[in-house]
Amino acid sequence: MAAVIWFSDDDATRHESVGGKGRNLALLAHAGFDVPPGFVVASEGYAEFMRAAGLDRELPAFLAGLDYADPAALEAATASFRKHLLDAPMPGAVAKEITEAYAALGPDPYVAVRSSGTAEDMADASFAGLHDTFLDVKGADSVIDAVKDCWASLWTARATAYRKARGFDHLAVSLPVVVQMMAEADVAGVMFTANPLTAATNEIVINASWGLGESVVSGAVTPDEFVIDTDTLRVKRRILGSKARETVRNPQSGRGTLTREVDEDRRSAYSLTDDQLNALARLGRRITRHYREVPQDIEWALVDGRIHVLQSRNVTGVDFTWDEDLDAWQTDPDDPETVWTLQWSNDFWNGATSPLHYSVRSYEFLCAQRYLRNNLGATDMLGLRMFKYWRGRAYYNTKLDALNAQNLAPPSLRAGMLNNVHPDDRQAVLDAPFDKSRLARTVIRQLSDPRSGPYAWLKLSYAYMAEREANEGLTAEALHELSDVELKAHIDSRIQRWIDFNNQMWLGFFTWGAWSIQAIASLLLKWFPNMDEGEFTSTLQDLISGLPLPVNKQAEERQELWRLGNIIRNSPELTSLFKQHEGTAFFDQLGDSEEGRAFQREYTSFIAEYGARGTADRDWFYPRRVEDPNLDYNSFQAVLKAENNVAPLELEHKRRIQREAITQQLLSQLRDAPLGFLKAEAFKVVLDYAYRLLRLREDQRHYLDVVGQSKKRGWLELGERLVVRGLLAQVDDIFFLTWDQAYALLDGQSDHELDFLQLKITGRRAVFEKVHRRELAHSMYLKDQAAYETGGHDDVALAGEQDVLQGAGTSVGMVTGRARIVQNLEALPTLQAGEILVCNATDPGWATAFLMIKGLVIEEGGLLSHGACLSREYGLPAVTLQNAMRRIPNGAIITLDGARGRVEIVSTDDGESEQVSADGSPTPIGR
Description:
Elements: E1 4-6, H1 15-30, E2 38-41, H2 43-53, H3 55-64, H4 71-87, H5 92-104, E3 110-115, E4 133-138, H6 140-153, H7 157-166, E5 177-181, E6 187-192, E7 203-210, H8 214-217, E8 224-229, E9 235-239, E10 245-249, E11 257-261, H9 264-267, H10 274-290, E12 296-303, E13 306-314, E14 339-341, H11 343-348, H12 355-376, E15 387-390, E16 393-397, H13 398-408, H14 423-431, H15 436-448, H16 456-466, H17 468-472, H18 476-480, H19 484-527, H20 533-543, H21 553-569, H22 572-580, H23 584-588, H24 594-610, H25 630-641, H26 648-671, H27 676-724, H28 739-747, H29 754-772, E17 781-783, E18 786-787, E19 804-806, E20 808-811, E21 814-821, E22 836-839, E23 855-858, H30 866-874, E24 878-880, H31 884-887, E25 893-897, E26 902-907, E27 914-916, E28 922-924
Parallel strand pairs: 21-22, 22-23, 23-24
Antiparallel strand pairs: 1-2, 2-5, 3-4, 3-5, 6-7, 6-12, 7-8, 8-9, 10-11, 12-13, 14-16, 14-17, 15-16, 17-18, 19-26, 20-24, 21-25, 25-26, 27-28
Helix pairs in contact: 4-6, 5-6, 12-19, 13-14, 16-19, 19-27, 21-24, 21-25, 26-27
C-alpha cells in the first residue's frame, strides 16, 4: 500500500494505517469541517523504513533486553535504539512519496509534523505528550527528518515504559505521522465539549491564549478559561489567565517556533470576544453531534478571524454521566440564579441516588408539590423546579422552603423551617413581612376542603395505607405474563399510586402537621420563658419521643426483628447453626431441623409483612430483605452481640412514661399560671396533634416502601426483557437509565445507539458506586452547576489536628467510648457492643445496632431523622456531624455530647486507631 494517505482518501479513516490523530482529522475533513489540508505518512511507510534499515529484525532482541526496573538502563537502551533509527536513511520510495505530497500542499509551505500512534487517543490510554510534534517545518528534507524524529519518539524510555505498564504489545504498535498545513494562529487553544473537571455534559470549556496552541496544550501558560452553557451558549464563567508567554514562528530563522513574553496590555485582555466564543461553542456542538454525542477534546486555531480545527478526540479519564438527561422532562425553566441544596437529600434520600430512581421520584414529588400548592393557592411556587440531579445525588431548590416559610409562618416561627435554605439567605426570610391575610386564606381553603381538614387528611391517608392489595401490586410471576404495553401500564399505575397517596397526605402533613411541631416549640418558648437553651432542647426532645399507643409500624418492625434475633440467641441449636453458617447460608440450613423449620416459618411471616424494608439507602438499586436475607443475618448478629438486650417496645414504654411525666409537670406549671386551664388544654391539643403527625410519619414510610418495592419489581421485569433482547448487558443496568430511556429502549425507539447508551450506563454506574463508597465529595450548595458555599469546607480531622468537632445535637446525653465507622449495612458486623456508631445515616435496617451502641454520630439528618428518633427512644446521645466518617479516626476514643452537638477526640489509642480507606476497609494510621 501507499506510504502516504491524504486526509481526503477513503483509506484515511483506517485507524491501523493512519493512527488516532490521522483518523480523527480525516473524519473531520470528510464531514466538511475546516481542517487545514494534509496527509499521513502511514503505518506502511513506517514498516517499510524499519525493514529497509533492518531495525525490524533488531527489535525483538532490543525489547527482550529492556530492564524496566532500572530507569537509567532503560534510558540508555532506548537512546541507543533511537540513534540507530535516526541514522538510518529514509527508503527512496517512501522519501519520494513524502516529497511529492509536500509539494502538492504548495510552494515550500510551513507544515506541522505530528505523531499519530495507532494506540493513541484510546479510552484507557491517551499517550498524551509521549510522542513528538514539530511545528513550522519548511522544506521537503526537513519534513522527512521530522517524520523520522516522530518515529524515534515511539522508542523513548517514557513511551516504552507506558506501553509496558498498559499491556500494549510493542511489536504490534506503529506510529503514522500527520503532515498538515500550519495554521499561524492569532489565538489558539483547546475546547472540551463537556466539562472535564465537573463532568457536566451541558457545559463547554474553552482554554485560549495568544499565538500557537502549543503553549496551551503543553501547559506552558495559564490560558483564559471560559465555561459556556451548551444549550443557550451563555457564558457562565470566565477566568482571566496570565498568558505571560506565547509560542510563535521564529522570526529570525523563518522556521520552527520560539516562546516570547506577552505585553501587559494583551495579558490583561481576554483573548476571545463573545462572538468568537459563540462561534467556537457552535462548532463544538457540531463536532460532538458528528461523534454521536461523545464529549470531544478539540484543538483549534483562530487565523484572521477564521476557526480551524486541528484535532478532535474523545475526552478520556472522566466519568461522564449526562446528568441533564435526568431533568430533560422538566418544562419549568432552570434558573441559573437558583441555589440548590443537598440537605433535603441528606434527610430523606441519603446515599447514592440512581438515575432511574431519581427520574421517577423527582416526577412524583413534583406532582405532589404542585397539587399541594394549587390547593393552598400558592401559585407563586408552581413554576419552580423542585430537584436537580448532580453526580449521583439529588439537590433541592432552596427557594421553595424560603417561600414556604414566608407564606405559612410569622417571623417568630420561621427559624425551624429554614434547614433547606442557604445560610446567606436565611436572614432575609426571617425579615420578610408576613401576610396574615394570605395565611388566613390558606387556613380557610384547608378547612373548606373535605380532604384537607385538620383530621380529615389523617383519616384519608390511613385509608390509602390500609389498601394492602393496591399497595403491593403484582408479583414477579404475574408481571412476567404481561405484554410490554401492559408492563409499562402497570409500572405507571404504581407511580400514580404513590402520587395519589402523597397528594392526599401532603395536604395536611406540610400545613397542620408542620404547624403543630412549630407550635410546641413556640409555646415552650412563650409559656416557659425561664428555660435555658439546654433545658429547652432537652424538653423538646422528650416531648416528641415515646409516642402514645398504638405502636407505629416501624416500632412493630423493630420489635419483631428483635424477637426473631432472641429466638436464635436463646436456642443453642440455632446459635450454633448461626455461627457455623454465615449470611444466606444460615437461612439455607434451616430446613434440616425441626427447630430450624419453626424459625423459618416465623421468619417467612416476618418477610411477608416487612420484606420491602431493610436497607438504609432508599434507592431501588439496593436490595431489600425480601431479596437478600443477609441483611437480616447482620441484624440478628447485632442482637446476639447486644449486652443490653432489652425489647424495643419496653424501651419505648420507658420513654413514654418519661414523656408523660414531663408533660404532666409542664401542664401543672401551666395550670398555676394566669388562664392556666385554657393554656393547659391548648397545650394538650397541640401535643396530641403532633403525636398523630409523628405516628403517621413513621407508619407512612413502611407503606411507601411497599409501593416502592412493587415499582422495583416492575423495573426489574423490564430490565430482564431488555437483557434477553440483547439491549442491556445485565438486569441492574436498568437503574442507570432514566424512566423515558428505559421505555424507549423497550419500544425500540431509543434516540441513541446501544454503544452510546452503554457509555452512559458505565459512567453513571461508576459515579454512583463512588458516591455509595463515600469517595466522591459533594458541595452542600450548588448554583449554576458550581459549588456555592458559605465559609470553609470540612476536611479530614486526623489525630492531633482537631480535638473538638462541632455538629448539631439531636439526642441529649454524654458518653465516652470507642468510635466505630460503619460504611453501610454490609459492614455492620464490624460493630462491637459498647461502641459509638459513626455512619452516614440510619434507617430501619439499622435498628438492631441500637441494642449494642453507646451513642450515635451520623453525617446526615436532623432532629426528626431516623437515627435521632431512635437514639432518643433508646436514651442514647446523638450528634449530626458533616463528613463524620472522614473526620473521626476509626477506633478513636471520643466523647459525645448530644446536648451541645460536640464530638471530642480524646485519644487515637496510641496508634491502634484506624481510618476507613476508599474501598471501605479499615487501614491503620500512624504506622
